Amino acid sequence: MTERRYLQSVATALWRDNPGLVQLLGLCPLLAVTGSFVNGLGLGIATLAVLTVSNGLVSATRRFLQKEIRIPIYVLIIASLVTCVELLFQAFFPALDRALGIFIPLIVTNCAIVARAEVFASKNPVFSSIVDGFGMGLGFLLILVTIGLIRELVGQGTLFADMHLLLGGEPFKGLVVADAGWLIAILPPGAFFALAVAIATKNSIDRRRHARLRERTGLR
Amino acid sequence: MSNSAVLKNGLTLALIAAVCSGLVAVTYALTRDKIEDNRKAYLEQKLKPALSGVFFEGDVTESVVTLAAPHGLPGNDDAMIYRVYASGEPVAALFIVTARNGYSGPIRLLLGVDMNGTVTGLRILEHRETPGLGDKIDEDKSDWVQQFPGRSLGDPAIDGWQIRNDGGEFDQLTGATVTPRAVINAVRDTLIYFAENKEQVFAMQEDKAQ
């Protein structure tokens, strides 16, 4: 693959095949932790790291893999990577680790990761698998922070509150937009509403683009 | 599948398992000390605010007792008591207990009490109360817990250890009465326990370092 192709595969992962918006994979963490921007970003980074490295390792071992044992091997690789990421979070971002709680270890069960191992990494060379994992991870991260941003703004009236959990330094209350928010956005139903709005927005943009394309080319 | 294929698959799995375990082991060894430091720092940072106005020496986290239920303190979970000293003399005790009947499950709280039985601080450690209503017991969300320091069993009298709605002397939270009720009861019961078992609290064998 040329550089152009790599860029294209990342772009596809970000928009056309976005794991959160289109493939609807990893919905459990997506809905559960996105109460604020910083939580979404933290889990996004952790997932991105695991997905990139696991794709690389699965691809590197793909020649030894027998069909019968490939799934246990994916599980082994993904589970050990997640354990490492969890330890690193506990060591370097302890406060964020407490905020994300069980959802760091639960990255193991994020089907976006095993799906990329099976669909892509087990059939492609190491570098393009790493690019694919990075692209998919970035797509997932972007949807996590988008929903986190919407829910935090609507539910709490702030932007980027508690960023010190990730960056260190003084407690940061965030940019206060409104004094109070609309509580339901932070409660679980708010996650579904925000995801629905995000998917609807994406579909509407896509439809408009298609319509314009059709007009220009005269094709159906 | 032939026997040799099974063997080969088994060996491949074993090899990959060994490599993966190695990876985890190395990460664990590299991060262990830092994680332990973080845990201690977090605990100290959580414990110290419950000791306002108490002069103490040394490490607050040093002398701890963990009591399995039934222990006479509120809650069915393990209760913990940190004993705080100055010049070798006990000056206060920190209790970590569970208020069982919160609105959405148990509430874990930290209560500091000095030798006179006066509250030196209250902090909520874990809870799942409703955001915007019951979660105001969290000191980050409102100063509700600030009405406790300085209070003791005689102040108010035992009947006054209730929210105002129930005829007591403590503020409730708008839209939430179950949560404050649970916390106030747990605080009162802990104070009663300390008043009755003061000597025993400081005589108990401390946990062995892990």
Give a summary of the structure in a few sentences:
The complex is a heterodimer of chains A (220) and B (210). Chain A is mainly alpha-helical and 220 residues long. Chain A is 66% helix and 2% strand.
Description of the molecule:
- In chain A, about 65% of the residues lie in helices and about 0% in strands.
- Chain A has about 220 residues and is mostly helical.
- Chain A has one domain (about 5-215).
- The radius of gyration of chain A is 19 Å and the shape is globular.
- The relative contact order of chain A is 0.17.
- Chain B has one domain.
- The mean pLDDT of chain B is about 90.
- Largest interchain contact: A-B, 25 and 22 residues
As a percent range, the share of helical residues of chain B equals: 25-40%
In percent terms, what proportion of residues of chain B is strand? 15-25%
Shape of chain A: globular
Largest sheet of chain B, described in full?
5 strands, antiparallel
Mean pLDDT of chain B: 88
Topology:
The complex is a heterodimer of chains A (220) and B (210).
Chain A: H1 3-14, H2 27-32, H3 37-60, H4 70-92, H5 94-100, H6 111-119, H7 126-156, E1 158-159, H8 164-167, E2 175-176, H9 188-217
Antiparallel strand pairs in A: 1-2
Chain B: H1 3-47, E1 64-67, E2 79-86, E3 89-99, E4 107-114, E5 119-126, H2 178-203
Antiparallel strand pairs in B: 1-2, 2-3, 3-4, 4-5
Can you give keywords for this protein?
heterodimer, A: 220 residues, mainly alpha, two-stranded antiparallel sheet, 9 helices, 66% helix, globular, B: 210 residues, alpha+beta, 5-stranded antiparallel sheet, 2 helices, 19% strand
